[in-house]
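Two quick folds needed for the group meeting slides. Do the first one here.
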Amino acid sequence: MANVAPLISVVFTSYNHERYLKQAVDSLIGQTFKDFELIIIDDCSTDNSRTILQSYAQHPNVKLNLLEKNTGSYVKSSHLGALKATGKYILFAQCDDFSESEQLAVLAEKALQFPSAGVIFSKSRLIDQDGKNLGDDYQIRNMSFKKRCKSDTLLQGQEMRSFLSYACVIPNLSAALINRDLYFKSGGLPEKFSMAADWALWLALSELTDFFYVSEVLNNFRQHAATIRSKTKLDKQLSEILNVFTEHSLKFRLNKTQQNAMMVGFGSIWFNYFLEDPRNAKASIIDFYKKASVEHKHLLYYLMKGAFKKTGFIIENLSNTK
C-alpha cells in the first residue's frame, strides 16, 4: 500500500544552535496535530547539533538530512527542504524558535476553512536569548494593520502587498503555513537574497493568493543580541529591501501608482531604522544613497516622503493609545 502524503510538511533548518535545538524540535514533535512530516536539514553544523538531531532519527514523523557541505545560507537549506516536501502545505521552522503545541492544528484548521488563502500566519511572541517574553510583533505594527487584524482576518492579496510595503508583517518563516504549489509557483525563497528573502517570498505570494491572519500567538520568535544592526549590515539590508521592491514591481508589472506606493513604503522603512538606531542609520545613509541613487534617481524624494508617512503612523499610534 502506497504511503499517503501528510497534510503538512514542516521544513526544519538547523545550523549551530545547539542551545535551542531540543526545545525547538520537541515543540514540533509534541504538536497536537499529527498529520505532518518533519524534514530536518542540518546545514553541516560544527557544534553538537548533529548529535542532538540524530536522537530523533527514529521518530516516525522525522526525515533527517545531515548535509556534508554547508550551503552558505538558510535560504538554500530551506529551499532544499521544500524540494523534499510531500505535504499540501509547508511550514518553515527555524532552529532557534519554537512552536506552541496547537500551532499546526490552528493553522491547518484555518487553511481548510479559508481555501482562498494560500498563506496562513499568526501573531508571534518575541523572546530574548534566555526565553524572556519581549511582547509580540502585533504591538509594533502600524495602526492600519492593528485595526484590520485585531481579530482573525482574511486579507486579500493586494491588501497584503500594501502592508508588506511598509513592514515585513510576517516577521519570521516559522509563523506561516504556505500552500506548497503556490510556494513553487511564486518562485520560492530567492537565493540571491540573504536578509530579505522571506519578504520577497511574501510579496510574490501576495500577487497569487489571499492571506489569513490568526490573532493568537502560535510561534515564539527569538531575538539575538547579534541581530543588532551594524552600519555594514544596515547598508546590506536596506539595499536588499530596495532590490526586492524594485524587482517585484518589474516582475509583476505594477502600475505607476503601485510602484510609487512601494517606494514610499521603502522610505518609511528606512526612517523606521533611523529611529531605532540613529547613529548607524545616519552613518550608513550617505554611502547607501550614493550607491542606490545611481539607479534610483528619485530616491531622496521617496526617503523624505516615507519619513513623513512614518511620522504620521507614529502620531496615529500615539493618538490611539491615549
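Then this one, please, same format:
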Amino acid sequence: MVVAADPYGRVRTCPLPLRAGGAGRNDRSHASGGTVIRLTIAVAAVLLLVACSSGSEPTPEPSSEPSSGPTPSSPSSSAPAVAAAPIDRRLAALEERYDARVGVSLLDTGDGAAYSYRGDQRFGFASSVKVLVAAELLRRTGSAERAELVRWTQDDVDAAGYSPVTEAHVDRGLPLLRLAEAAVRESDNTATNLVLERLDGPAGLTRGLLGRGDTTTVLADDEPGLNEVSPGSPANTTTPDAFVADLRALLGPEWLTDADRRLLLGWMSGNPGGDPLIRAGAPAGWRVAQKSGGAGPVRNDVAVLTPPDGRAPVLLAVLTTRLDPSAPYDDALVADAAEVALGALEAS
C-alpha cells in the first residue's frame, strides 16, 4: 500500500504498492520570494471536495513544517524487495551535503518493485506540473479544438514570465495543441496559462486530477504564481508518491489514448533542460521522458524511464528543496538522488 497525504496532510493508504524508506531559480518561470499563496474560491471549493472524498472523519489543519523523517509505507507481499536501508542512508547523506529535503518515489511497472523516501511529504511542484496540465488537455479535447488558433497579447507574456515560444508568436498566435507542447517541451509560461484557461483554470485541473484519483495535488495559481508555496498550505504542492501515481495513470488507458500517450511522451523526450537531472543519474542506455521544475530553492524532475532490454517502464519522481529558502536550487542534487534510487533498483 502507498502511504499518501491528502491536501490537508492527513495520511491515507492507496492501492499502489510502494516500498518505503526510512528517514527521510525557477525552471524558466520567475516567482517572487516570500509571496503568500492566494487560494481562489474555486480552489477552496476543490479542497472541500477533496476533504469529502477522503472520508468523514474530522480534517486536521496541515502542519507548518514537514515531519522530521519519512513515513514508511507498507510493503507489498508480492513485489520484489528493494533494499531500503542503504538507499535511506545515501539519500540522508545527500540531504546533509546539499542542506536540503529530498523526496523520492520509484515504481517498476513491470514487477512492482518500488521505493519511497519522504514519499508522503509535500513539496512545491513548480513547472513539473505542466505535464499534468498538458495531459488533462489531451484528455478533454478532440482534433477540432486542438487545431483552434489561440491569440494572446504582449501583456500576457510579460505577466507570465519565461515564454520563449509564445513571445515569438504574439502577432500570429498558435494552435492550442502547439501551446500544450510548448508548456511541456519548452516550459513556456504563457502557453501553460492559455492551456489552463481551457481547463477552467487551476481549480479545473485540480478537479480533473481528483477525477483521476489524485486527492493530493493542488494547483492554486497559474504562472508565475504556481511556484509560490507557503508553509502549512497544500496549495501548489504534491507528494512524490502522488506524482508517481499520476505517471502510472498516464500510462494506463483511462486517462489518454495510445496516440495521445505517445504524443505526450514525445514532448517529454529529448529536451536539453532535462539533461542534468534524472537523465544524468539514469543507467546508460535508458530512455528518459521527463518534465523538470524549479523555482528558488525548489528543483524537481519526474520521469518515465525505459530500460534498453525491453523491460516495462520505470517511474521516478525526485522532488527537492533547499532548507535555506534563499539558496538556489542545485541540479546535481536531483541527479544524485536519481542515481541512488535507480542504482538500487538495478541491484535488487
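Slide caption for protein two: The radius of gyration is 19 Å.
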